[in-house]
Design goal:
Helix content: 25-40%
CATH superfamily: P-loop containing nucleotide triphosphate hydrolases
Strand content: 25-35%
CATH class: Alpha Beta
Strand order of the largest sheet: 6-7-8-3-9-10
Structural class: alpha/beta
Largest sheet: 6 strands, mixed
Radius of gyration: 18 Å
Number of helices: 8
Number of strands: 10
Shape: globular
Order of helices and strands: EEEHEEHEHHHEHEHEEH
CATH architecture: 3-Layer(aba) Sandwich
Length: 232
């Protein structure tokens, strides 16, 4: 589903910063991968490359067999709308829209009619426990509810890939655990390929594999199953 082949990303003309260095990673359909590492390790750069918001200095990023570097800006935007759901730490919801309008927005951008888009949005809002909050705007909801709304928006078009950037970072531990369990349940339902960037080891344990970055390189990969066995 996701193929990263010998990817590097450099920034700067004078003093060059090597944000990623020769990263190779394969993520099959349905796998959940946590990407961890200290600040400056390349996590955000990797996410930006995966969603086509940035381009590698060298190497190739493929989503569902399509090399992102082979696409023009419009084609990359269309690929994001059709294949990639994104969840952000800061939610990135539109404050003037209701929950149902926020969640329906990706469908409307794909050309789905307003009635059908909002019907599908209401169904998914019910699935994430916000069925009775569909007419509320983001500022009328708690942090956990806004993150649930953001998850519904990311999954409403059933994307094959979900990218999550610290989805529990602004939440208390109990609410964060609820969000992780919600993502677990939706993963089981949609079999979405998930890349989760996190500093939280507990959040990473909800994935199948942990990829650890340092100084722009993959320094370790671990199966969560084996780590859980060690804890037991």
């Amino acid at each position: 589903m996701i193929e990263i082949d010998n990817v590097s990303r450099d920034y700067g003309d004078g003093k060059v910063v090597h944000a990623l260095q020769a990263v190779t990673l394969s993520i099959p359909k349905g796998e959940r991968v946590a990407v961890m590492g200290p600040s400056g390790s390349g996590k955000s750069t990797l996410l930006n490359l995966l969603c086509g918001l940035d381009q590698p200095t060298a190497g190739t990023v493929k989503i569902d067999g399509v090399a992102l570097s082979s696409l023009d800006d419009d084609s990359r935007t269309r690929l994001r709308r059709e294949k990639i759901g994104m969840i952000f730490q800061t939610f990135n919801l539109l404050p003037t829209l209701t929950a149902v309008e926020n969640v329906a927005l990706p469908l409307r951008l794909q050309g789905v009619g307003k009635k059908e888009a909002e019907q599908r949005a209401r169904k998914l809002l019910g699935r994430v426990g916000l069925g009775d909050r569909a007419s509320h705007r983001p500022d009328e909801l708690s942090g956990g509810e806004r993150q649930r709304m953001a998850i519904a928006r990311a999954l409403v078009f059933e994307p094959p890939v979900l990218l999550a950037d610290e989805p529990t970072g602004n939440l208390d531990s109990a609410t964060g655990q609820e969000i992780l369990e919600l993502i677990d349940g939706l993963h089981g339902e949609y079999n979405t390929t998930i890349v989760l960037v996190t500093h939280n080891e507990e959040a990473a344990m909800h994935c199948d594999r942990i990829v650890r970055l340092r100084d722009g390189r993959i320094v370790k990969q671990e199966s969560v199953g084996s780590l859980a066995a060690e804890v037991v």
